[in-house]
Amino acid sequence: MQPSVSIQNLKLDFGSVSVLRDLNLDIGQGEFLVLLGSSGCGKSTLLNCIAGLLEPTEGSIHIKGQNVTWAEPSDRGIGMVFQSYALYPQMTVEGNLTFGLKNAKMPKDEIARRVARAAEVLQIEPLLKRQPAALSGGQRQRVAIGRALVRDVDVFLFDEPLSNLDAKLRADLRVEIKRLHQTLENTMIYVTHDQVEAMTLADRIAIMKGGVVMQLDTPSVIYNKPANKYVADFIGSPSMNFFDTRLANPQSPKVVIAGKDVSLSGYEFTRPGFSGDVWFGIRPEHIVTGEAADAAPTQFEVRAELVEPMGAETLVWSSLAGTSLRFRVDGQMPVADGDLIRVGFDPARASIFDKAEELRV
Amino acid sequence: MADVTANMQRPSPAHASGPKPRRAFSRNNIVIYGILVVLAVYYLLPFYVMLMTSLKGLPEIRMGSIFAPPMEITFEPWVKAWSTVCTGLNCDGLSRGFWNSIKITVPSVFFSIAVASVNGYALSMWRFKGANVFFTILIIGAFIPYQVMIYPIVILLREIGLYGDLGGLVLVHTIFGMPILTLLFRNYFSSVPEELFKAARVDGARFWTIYLKIMLPMAVPIFVVAVILQTTAIWNDFLFGVIFTRPDNYPMTVQLNNIVNSVTGVKEYNVNMAATLLSGVVPLTIYFLSGKLFVRGIAAGAVKG
Amino acid sequence: MSQSGKPTGLFKNLSAKIAAVPMVLTALVVFVGCSVWTIVYSFTNSRLLPSTKWVGLDQYERLWGTRRWLISIENLAIYGILMLILALVLGFLLAALIDQKIRFEDGFRTIFLYPYALSFIVTGLVWQWLLNPEFGIQHAVRSLGFETFTFDPLYNTNTVLYGVLIAGLWHTSGLVMCLMLAGLRGIDEDVWKATKIDGIPAWKTYLLVVIPMMRPVFITTLVLITSAIIKLYDLVIAQTGGGPGLASEVPAKFVFDMMFVSQNLAQGFAASSMMLVAVIVVIIPWAYLEFGGKKHG
End of a domain among A179, A206, A229? Predict the structure, then answer.
């Protein structure tokens, strides 16, 4: 099937700085793709290129099979929602919704029909005659989504749309965007630096760094099988614990941590037969304590150095084999600084990266 | 610039950064208000004297003190200054200069702001190659003494047949207003969120639509500031007026100077002061009506970047 | 207009370029073109009309041998230095006083700034009247009984410049106050709290902490006043006409008279080129401080 949005060999340089390097990305019809990365990774730049707000240095962008690399933003069949809402302050909500349609010289009854539909979907009918200044943050963002909606386009672009909202509203609107996607079934490309948004919304996530896609996959694969150390470190909070060790092969692969052999018989190798210096990574939430630790294939005794109670659970900082080790324990379990705790994990859930290229082995 | 003006407009009690709050009649307070009042007298005195002198008859001026209020108020100097005082061959008073100044100021303000606002908008939102080079030249140009450029401009205007014409003067004002106004508008439009501009482009608006439908309505306050700035500057201009117009078209400032500093005839100080006040009426009215916007205008014009 | 080719060259961003045409013309034709023209013709012997007969540096030699030009330069130097110092001091004083959480702040500010709304012509004429020895301040004080009181700066070749200075200061110091006030209000209030905790007296705080922090404001103000001073013309025309004698002549007036009165164009061109040099001397260090430093920082 033809992809909805196809990006080929896209390059963008600002002077001598390359912001996007030879990027290739195919986004399927109706797919929800999240571009995730820290600031400066090029995710917003990429979105702006797709929207036609930035001109690439090289490469091409196709939307629904048409080459739109140099087309005007309004001719690309896209709608866009911005972080700062970007509502026209001197126009009413209705004026905001209809501005683009009027520019396109659309007949009045068609405009009215579309506005009515968008207002209904987003439940903003009572706000139509108001000025943006009289709206709350959440209402403004709904109107901004409505502005994309009335354009009746196949591709929605979201540029960190929830970053300006407070935590609770953000969660509400996140659900609403997901619902909207289920209803409309159009392609959505969503830029964010928030991994929770990415994990909850995405069909696929593209994690970007320095203008390059580090990994493109479903949230589950990204979380469980990060392709490289950067992705492993970036996803998850608190981030993954890494041990500097050596993977010895051939017959029964194992690593040594704090003097103990850790057998990797249960680990699913991407590159079977690899041996050499590696980072052995294990997520804090995959470290168990108490009885579960006794049952785990690998066990250690560690001393709690710092305890951060967070209510439902407690985050414990300790160290193992000269590396800091973070893990979570149940919020009800009494832990104090200096306590000795028995921890364990299943090496099958670990992620191992070679030290030279930091790629998954 | 934004910071500066924001600070100026903040109603102060919560913020004024003076050393410490003090009681009403402390020694410090007396000193502060004392100095302020003395200085206020220095600033107010000329206005007071102008007004008093303009309301006296000539004999009273010769006899009394310039600080004394008139014993007998007369408006004759004002009437004479406005409608019958002579400059050169014309004896129809300052009213001629007044209307000339209106004819010069209105189109000059309009064109200079129209050109500069579009230019500032283009510079801040539609950056194109080389734009910054020209903008830099423009800003540096604001510091070049007019005297350096004035003669070639006379030649250029003569070539295109606008020398001595009001149109020529309007053109000159538009040119020399451009640096400061472009800077003013460029800074303003740069502070408009870029996403708004992007949203408009996604909505299919192009250069002029975005300017007219989105930016212009948003920028009303800055347009007011620009109008204040330009009206005052152009109304008060003397040099361009004297060089680029013929005596028939002299603006008020030039005519005023000719009236007061003419060497012929009896010096009518009361008429002179009435005339002086008359030519200050327009900028003073703007000043008192616009208040903080005027301050914002000069702060914007002065504190660059 | 869904073209598939990359828009290139001139037609890219065309509307913006059209909108910038007036700027480009102004920058190139007027600011660069006309300045260069004047400089070039200052090396000719143009008199009534521009001529292309090359005379090298003759005009400049003549200029610096002209008494009136030398007086103009000297006057401008004296006026300029005094004006800079006094305007900064007075402006800062006004701003600091107004910043003391006083009552009627707006009223005082309005009073100090209104002269700036008036033209130099009006300023010159009203101070000419006030300083008129027969009727003005001198007369008023004498009639109070001080028969020998003398205050006639405009009629004395040694003091006429100070008469102009009083008027210039009256006109400009309000603007300086405004800029300084903005600078003062821009200083973080915590600075005042910190110095209070450290027990530093207010005057010392101003001198050692606040003024150094306001360096950018001072520099901007300095540049603004200086470029205004170099252009000084209208005020002198209205107040003294350059007299008595040549005692209050200034370069801008010299240029004007050479070009439009004495029909000695090339002298005017040479003189105005010298004014340009003076401005450049002021602007370049400033531009370097203001913009040059930032690129590295």
Answer: A229
A361 part of a folded domain: no
B198 and B283: one domain?
yes
Classify residue B211: in a domain, yes or no. yes
Amino acid at A223: Y
SS3 (DSSP) at B33: helix
Indicate whether B228 and B133 sit together in one domain. yes
Question: Rounded distance, CA A25 to CA A35, Å?
Answer: 11
Please give the structure tokens belonging to residue C277: 């040099």
φ, ψ at C249 (rounded to 5°): -65, 145
| CATH code for the domain of A216 | 3.40.50.300
**From CA C253, how far away is CA C247, in angstroms rounded?**
13
Q: Are residues A209 and A240 in the same domain?
A: no
Q: Do C2 and A75 touch (CB under 8 A)?
A: yes
Same structural domain for residues A218 and A301? no
**Minimum mean pLDDT among A109-113, B87-91, C59-63, C159-163: which range?**
B87-91
**Residue B27: domain span:** 22-74
| Amino acid code (one letter) for A220 | S
- The answer on B136 and B229 residing in a single domain is yes
B231 vs B254: CA distance, rounded Å: 16
Inside any domain, residue B254? no
The CATH number given to whatever domain includes residue A286 is: 2.40.50.140
Q: What is the pLDDT of residues C1-17, one digit of tens each?
A: 444 466 666 667 788 88
- Locate tokens 């295109």: which residue? B160
Domain ranges, residue A146: 5-229
> What is the distance between the alpha carbons of residues B263 and A195, in angstroms, rounded to a whole number?
84
Cis previous bond, A250, omega within 30: yes
Same domain, residue pair A212 and A338: no
Q: Please list every residue in chain B whose beta carbon sits closer than 8 Å to the beta carbon of residue A79.
A: 202
- Which residue's structure tokens are 């034709």? C29
Write out chain C residues lying below 8 Å of A75, CB-based.
Answer: 1-2
Domain assignment of residue A243, yes or no = yes
C-beta separation of C232 from C172 below 8 A: no
In a domain, A359, yes or no: no
**B165 and B205, same domain (yes or no):** yes
Mind telling me how many Å the CA of B197 is from chain A's nearest CA?
Answer: 8
Residue A312, classified by CB atoms within 10 Å of its CB into exposed (0-12), middle (13-18) or buried (19+), is exposed
Cβ A261 vs Cβ A298: under 8 Å: no
Count of C-beta atoms within a 10 Å radius of residue B129: 10
Same domain, A103 and A250: no
- Tell me which chain B residue has its CA closest to the CA of residue A77: B202
pLDDT confidence bin for B299, thresholds 50/70/90 = low
What ipTM goes with this model? Answer: 0.86
Q: What is the pLDDT of residues C182-203, one digit of tens each?
A: 888 888 888 888 888 888 888 8
Per-residue pLDDT at B18 exceeds 70: no
B222 interfaces chain A, CB cutoff of 8 Å: no
Look at A78 and B196 and tell me if their CB atoms are within 8 Å.
no
pLDDT per residue as tens digits for the range C66-97: 999 999 999 999 999 999 999 999 999 999 99
User: C4 and A69: CB-CB below 8 Å?
Assistant: yes
Q: How far does CA A119 lie from the centroid of its chain?
A: 29
Q: How many CA atoms lie within 13 A of C232 on its CB side?
A: 33
Q: How far, in Å, CA of C26 to CA of B160, rounded?
A: 16
Note whether A300 and A322 are same-domain residues.
Answer: yes
Of the candidates A179, A360, A174, A158, the one whose C-alpha atom is nearest the C-alpha of residue A270 is: A360
Nearest residue, CB atoms, B196 vs list A79, A86, A103: A86
CB contact under 8 A, B201 and A100: no
A264 and A330 share a domain? Answer: yes
% helix, strand, coil for chain A, step of 5: 30, 35, 35
Spatial separation of the C-alpha atoms in residues B127 and B137, rounded to whole Å: 16
Using a cut of 0.80, tell me whether the model's pTM lies above it: yes
